[in-house]
Amino acid sequence: MKHKSIVFILIFLLLNSFSFAEEKVDLGQIVITPYRYEESLTKITSGFTVITSEEIKNSNAGNIAETLKSIPGITVRDWYGNGAKAAVDMGGFGEQAALNVLVLVDGRRVNDVDLSGVDWKQIPLFQVDRIEVIHGGSGAVLYGDNASGGVINIITKKGSGESKINLETEYGSYDMNKQRLSLDGEIDNKFSYWLSGGHESTHGYRHNTFDKDTDFASKFIYDFNDILAIRFNSGFHTSNYGMPGSLYQDDINQYGRKHARYGEDHTNNKDYYFVTGIKGNFPNFGNFDLDFSYRQKDTDSYFLTSELDTLKNKTETFGVTSKYTLNNSIFGRNNKFITGIDFYRSLYNSQTLYYSRTASILERELNQYANINKNSFGSYLQNEFSIFEKLVLVGGYRYEFARYTFGYHDNDLHGWGASPDQDKKVRPGMQAFNFGLAYTYKDDSNIFFNAGKSFRFPEVDEFTFIDANYQKQLDIDLKPQSSINYQLGLRHTLSKHIKGSLSLFRMNVRDEIYLNAQDFLSGNYWTGRNENYDKTIHEGIEAALDTKLNDWATLFGNYTFTNAYFNGGQYKNNKIPLVPHHKGSVGLRFILPKNITFSIVGSYVGERYFLNDQANDYSQLNGYMVADTNLSWRHKGLTLTFGVNNLFNKQYSENAGVKVDDGVKFYYPNPERNFILKATCEF
Predict the structure, then answer these.
(1) Does residue 386 contact residue 334 with C-beta atoms inside 8 Å?
(2) Contact at 8 Å (CB) between 232 and 274?
(3) CA-to-CA distance for 13 and 334, rounded, in angstroms?
(4) Do residues 478 and 463 make contact, with C-beta atoms less than 8 angstroms apart?
(5) Is the dihedral of CA 521, 522, 523, 526 positive or negative?
(6) Is 496 strand, coil or helix?
(7) Which CATH number do you get for residue 616?
(8) Where are the alpha helices (DSSP H) in 18-149?
């Protein structure tokens, strides 16, 4: 690995060796929505990344999670290599990463209330206009729970201009194929519409890593006049994917990396939502937004090979969100104020069906069921004040409480003794605050500082555990997690050809929630138990640089250093598993004659400890570097793209762990070299 590190260092030195004539770029006019209203990048007091529609088109990414892999400060672990199950880590939270990143779609929360985290394929990449990433915990004031490591807001497309039809088809390795169709446009500058539908499928790199998805979506916006507008969004997503399980080294030696220990285990998902809202824009009196949302997700998991009980989960989520924004002047200085209320009600129903080889799926008897309701209510306010023309002060506060109502019953079909019925309530409350400064020292560059507090409530199934007598218990003493966050950064445009960013961050986390698999060894718990760490520290550096070498070549790269460790308790000074110290990407993009574009991107992820190895007793999982490349040609409304992923055929695993009882390591192998061919036509 040493030679790869040297190559990285040389590339970044090369990035800094070019010099060009000074030419200003008005970076401050880039409009984004980190504060639940539009703002220019130079006034943002935290690290921020935007993935544009053009960048999405120029990548080989097949889903949203894959677009995030080359972003500084983000590590993605794809379990099966097809995007069906992936975890996105911001800030170095390791195993619990998916629960410490808040994911929004057009401002609507899409994190599941259970341990399943986020379904990254519920919104196909075809529907995405751009992705906005807030680094660090500053987003907790405006967005609340789960925003400890950061916030990812997926902005979907909307109709504009004359009516257009967009067709897309894609084929690739492992029998991958996709077909997409969309229609969008605008009528009389008042009514915009966007409709899309699509299907995709793949057999997957490994056996039983098949994935089949079907999607439909719509977005309608009607402006009655300059004051009043209404909107309606909806979506429907179904997926069916295999769960091959992990592989031990003996499995790989005997059967190869494509083997599946569980050849029949699979999951069926059905997910649909709608959002309707109204917006009022009242001159001199501010803007008011009110949204109502509903989402239902059904997940049925069948463990036919591993011979575990069948799980059927259903979650209904009702949301009411309101916000009021006022843009005015105080003492002759610009001032922006926002306040609002977020209410979500989630009804979680889980059924466990007794497994028997002699019974069909329909004949299996109900063994356990749980009905858990989670209501969350958050209110917030934040103010952005221009102390001077180029110095902005941002401050905000949020209070949020959650109420869990548990109902659990066991029919004891296994004959292990019925678990006690659980009918209890938990009502935790948490606060978040944020203080930030941004100074624009030239038109397109700024320095920023941010300090604040973020939090995360336990997920509904983190409260439960199975004791030594195989009985399910409820731990109502599990505490919410909180962290104090600091961030200092710089966004700088040296010239028309060079721009970059650098930020330092530190999170002092208290009561971080994790699964203590070591409890399994103690004999007190059958599968381990979710507990609170004493204290943890997450700190590091995020840097990015974009250099235009000439009119036809661009060199870009980024680097992240993360140091996540325990700061107390039995694991004091140990590293948090699955968090690499070093991560980086570097790439070249060439704009060639005849509307041809060629790009190559290399990504490196360093060594990290295996899942479950909080004690750091075992060797680390190897780091890896992979390269992706693509070639595209555009002519009028037609675009053809040929891409190669993992160009040098690297064998690696983004995710791996160790069994706490015997120290045997297990792996989730990622795909080797594979290809895509995509055609997009707009008319």
Answers:
(1) yes
(2) yes
(3) 41
(4) yes
(5) negative
(6) coil
(7) 2.40.170.20
(8) 53-57, 64-67, 140-143
Give the pairing type, strands 582-592 and 596-605: antiparallel
Q: What phi-psi label fits residue 11: left (phi over 0), alpha (psi between -120 and 50 degrees) or beta? A: alpha
**pLDDT of 660:** 83
User: d(Cα 350, Cα 299) in Å, to the nearest integer?
Assistant: 9
* Interacting residues of 349 by C-beta distance below 8 A, sequence separation 6+: 313, 314, 315, 369, 370, 371, 372
C-alpha 180: how far from its chain's center?
23
- The reported pLDDT for the residue numbered 10 is 36
- Domain of 614 in residue numbering reads as 2-682
Q: Which of 380, 394, 275 is nearest to 324 (CA)?
A: 380
Q: Please give the tally of structural domains in the chain.
A: 1
Model pLDDT, residue 14? 36
- What is the block-wise mean pLDDT of the chain (683 residues), using blocks of 10 residues? 39 36 37 73 90 88 92 93 89 93 94 89 92 94 95 94 95 96 95 97 96 97 95 96 95 96 95 96 92 97 90 96 94 94 96 73 72 96 95 97 92 71 91 96 92 96 83 88 96 91 96 79 64 92 94 95 93 95 96 94 96 94 96 93 96 94 93 96 90
As given in the structure block, the two tokens for residue 124 are 């196909």
How many other CB atoms are found less than 10 A from the CB of residue 63? 21
Q: Is the dihedral of CA 256, 260, 261, 263 positive or negative?
A: negative
Which helix (H) or strand (E) element contains residue 149?
A: none
Question: Which pLDDT score, from 0 to 100, does residue 421 have?
Answer: 82
Total-model pTM: 0.92
